[in-house]
Amino acid sequence: MSKSTISTFELFQMFPDAESARNYFEQKRWPNGAICPACNEVKRIHARKDGFYRCNACLNDFTVRTGTIFERSKVPLHKWLYAMYLLVTARKGISSLQLAKQIGVTQKTAWFMLQRLREACGNDPTKLAGIVECDETYVGGKEGAKHEADKLKMGRGTVGKTAVIGMREKGGRTKASVIKDAGANSIHRAVHSGVETGSTLHTDEHGGYVGLEGLFYAHERINHSAGEYVRDGVTTNGIESVWAVMKRGLHGVYHHASPKHLDRYVAEFTFRLNDGAVQRHTLDRLASMFSAAIGQRLTYKDLIA
Fold this sequence. Notes:
It is a single chain. This protein has helices spanning 8-14, 18-29, 77-89, 96-103, 107-121, 184-194, 237-254, 262-274, 282-293, 300-304, and strands at 45-47, 53-55, 60-62, 131-139, 162-169, 174-179, 200-203, 218-221, 230-231, 234-235. The protein is of the alpha+beta class.
């Protein structure tokens, strides 16, 4: 086994119960002592039992769960930690049914847990820079399991599918998100949001990227329709490999992701490529996911609304 990877058995030895997991999360969130999430008070904090703290400045009671995706969850923290471990170490993801069996919760609870973790995965404010490959793809639209009356019968086109744009920094991070369509307005908005000005874009010949060059970006195109895939270092092969991994996971593990929740699934796959890369130690990957979970909140009501 790689020195950067810890086994499931080793994880259980390190965090055998909720108390050990709570201590781990507290050390990661508050290495110098608890801080009130309501008023950021540092000194006037009183430790109570069972992981609760009282802020004597604003009289707020809180735990390490407060202000995170774990807030108001009844699932023990060591089960949350194990769910995080499975999510960052599974190349193509883990289904809610499988997670439910692994940690001993209902499938409904496991699904909610995974959606909350995916919500944290999307908490990435960084922008890409340098040479950035950009490409769009479409997800969904498979009609094999549909009733005959529901089939669109539109062939392999984009009808009934959801557009996703991806951007991959050469030798660096990946960003991807669901967009309304693959038109110029949607693509330009996504690129300006995710890529630093002054960067160089590598795209295919799709018309939605026209107009990005000049004031904001340098722009090089590869002509796929002419059988061109690499030219003097210009390529979109990197971001297209991301689509290959993502679609294998969506089709092979999750089978279906509704347009309503697809953005979270996309965030999960990009998080694994960035902060969940196998070159990083497992504990570093877990720490990155916990850092992303702070400041995030997803209630069940909001999830199913």
